[in-house]
């Protein structure tokens, strides 16, 4: 008889499924159509010492990236995405912009946390670089994982929500998880024990409960260096960048690319309510997504 469960970790084509009692089962998909990701609700069937994923319950959302040759799915059924950046090393605004666009396209709330507040000069520079994002209404929190400053405000954002943690290597994601795990429920220990036993030990994405009631969870993921957006059409971009989207109704032409057309409301706002750097991020990404395939 099939059972329902939630995917809490992945390893290649195999997944770890947690049932409503917190028990874990290693499963593999039945066919290519049942390739599940962390956060998926699935129906699975026991089969010897492993199980098979028979079907995936329709998702509320899916966060993923796509380049010209490959699609990488991060997680499904999310309430929000936490983009963790660090004041040092200097973060890439291009990668930040891409992550925000992917979340916006998937209909998932996003917020940014800038770590290493204990480094005054680098932090001040990073905070200033994020001013256009705060101006367009994006929540941006300050944090110092070395001193736990800002951790209370962050925990408030995590309460009662399923949060995917995304960020480049060196931002402090592992340290953040270690700070949060002391308050985690018993399920965390059982997941860690299961993942570190047997022949399937390396995982790419992992789910952690943050309370015994299982109302809040974070999903940890490896650091990323590239974030392709080939699943986004160039003409969609301005709609997915809030500071550009506010000016879309002011263009003379309905199919304005916001690159060269006369009477463009977006271009008229550059240097005023729209920062020049944010506009350059748009034009660079528009060119990338408009280019013909290289294969």
By CATH reckoning, the class of the largest domain would read: Alpha Beta
Mean pLDDT: 90
Q: Order of strands across the biggest sheet?
A: 10-9-8-11-13-12
SSE sequence, one letter per element: EEEEEEEEHEHHEHEHHEEHHH
Round the Cα radius of gyration to an integer and report it: 21 Å
Query: Which second-level CATH architecture of the largest domain applies?
Result: 3-Layer(aba) Sandwich
Helix/strand class: alpha/beta
Number of helices: 9
* Percentage of residues in DSSP E strands: 25-35%
* Main sheet properties: 6 strands, mixed
Q: What is the overall shape?
A: globular
What is the total number of structural domains? 3
**Uncertain stretches of 5 or more adjacent residues:** 198-202
The first-to-last residue Cα distance is 46 Å
Describe this structure in words.
It is a single chain. By secondary structure, this protein is α/β, with parallel strands linked by helices. Helices cover 27% and strands 25% of the residues. It has helices at residues 93-106, 120-129, 131-135, 151-158, 173-180, 186-195, 242-245, 265-269, 276-290; strands at 3-11, 14-18, 24-29, 41-47, 50-56, 62-66, 71-76, 80-86, 109-115, 140-142, 162-166, 206-209, 217-220. It has a six-stranded mixed β-sheet, with helices on both faces.
Keywords:
Rossmann fold, globular, 5-stranded mixed β-barrel, OB fold (Dihydrolipoamide Acetyltransferase, E2P), alpha/beta, 13 strands, 295 residues, Ribonucleotide Reductase Protein R1, domain 1, 3 domains, 27% helix, single chain
